[in-house]
Specification:
The protein is α/β, with parallel strands linked by helices and 264 residues long. The protein is built from seven helices and ten strands. Strands 3-2-1-4-5 form a five-stranded mixed β-sheet, covered by helices on one side. A five-stranded mixed β-sheet has the order 8-7-6-9-10, sandwiched between helices. Strand 7 and strand 8 form a beta hairpin.
């Protein structure tokens, strides 16, 4: 097993990674693709998937593609690519996983548990804000799901008559007390989200005082910065930021799948 590609199909984007053996080399994101675009990309005259320009070579195009998806409409579109390995929940070597658990949450949990070999709370700030708790035996304790930051902003715009669509890139900071409606929306959503996340962490710490906490996802860094300002390490444990923890879990799962298959 040398070069292979990882693909995590998320609700908003496709998340890609390049591995050499089980070592993560790089990651990048793209939009979702139509069935026609994916079918065209399988032609030998162009890359089988969208790649950074410097990776467009034949040997790389033929690399195995390891896939995990939480978007049923996108999943079958990629199964026709040669050398596809689709990771399913029953291949994740953690205990007490329930059947409807998202494969993305399972991969982050697997990656985090193997990273620290201890209890861990994984907080994924993506389209959905998810909390996934694993104990020190690698068993799922449980979790929670809420609308993510941008989804909450979009929902306020979509479900009200006058609240505007908010452009986050025009706001240099998120103040708590504001003097206009767009900034008031961002303040209300963001500070409520941070407060709720802090409450989940505090509750988890009471139950698992030797646990690690890791943040990931598109809004993971923003949460890390906000929570870190008031973070109090305990029992030698700290707050971690790892945007690639799901791909680390994918590498562990894929290595185990290949080992179970044996020599070919």
């Amino acid at each position: 097993m040398t070069i292979w590609l990882g693909l995590i199909i998320g609700n908003s984007r496709l998340h890609w990674a390049q591995f050499e053996a089980n070592q993560l080399q790089r990651t990048w994101d793209t939009v979702h693709f139509t069935a026609e675009a994916i079918a065209a990309s399988l032609s030998l005259s162009c890359p089988p998937i969208p790649l950074p320009p410097d990776l467009d070579d034949e040997s790389f195009r033929l690399a195995p593609l390891v896939m995990a998806s939480v978007v049923p409409t996108q999943t079958p579109l990629w199964r026709n690519r040669p050398n596809v390995v689709e990771i399913s929940l029953n291949q994740i070597q953690l205990v007490n996983l329930y059947p409807s658990l998202g494969i993305d949450r399972a991969l982050t949990a697997l990656g985090a548990f193997h990273q620290w070999n201890a209890a861990v709370l994984i907080i994924d700030g993506g389209t959905a804000l998810t909390f996934t708790g694993i104990d020190d035996q690698g068993a799922l304790v449980g979790g929670a799901i809420a609308p993510g930051f941008r989804l909450q902003l979009q929902t306020l715009h979509d479900q009200t008559a006058t609240l505007p669509d908010v452009a986050l890139d025009t706001m240099p900071s998120i103040e708590r007390w504001t003097m206009n409606t767009p900034e008031a929306i961002v303040s209300g959503v963001w500070h409520s989200l941070v407060a709720g996340t802090r409450d989940f962490i505090q509750t988890w710490r009471r139950e698992f005082p030797l646990s690690h906490v890791v943040l990931t996802g598109g809004d993971g860094n923003m949460l890390y910065q906000a929570l870190g300002q008031q973070w109090e390490p305990w029992q030698g444990r700290s707050l971690h930021l790892d945007p690639h923890i799901g791909f680390r879990g994918m590498a562990i799962a894929y290595t185990q799948i290949m080992a179970d298959q044996g020599p070919t």
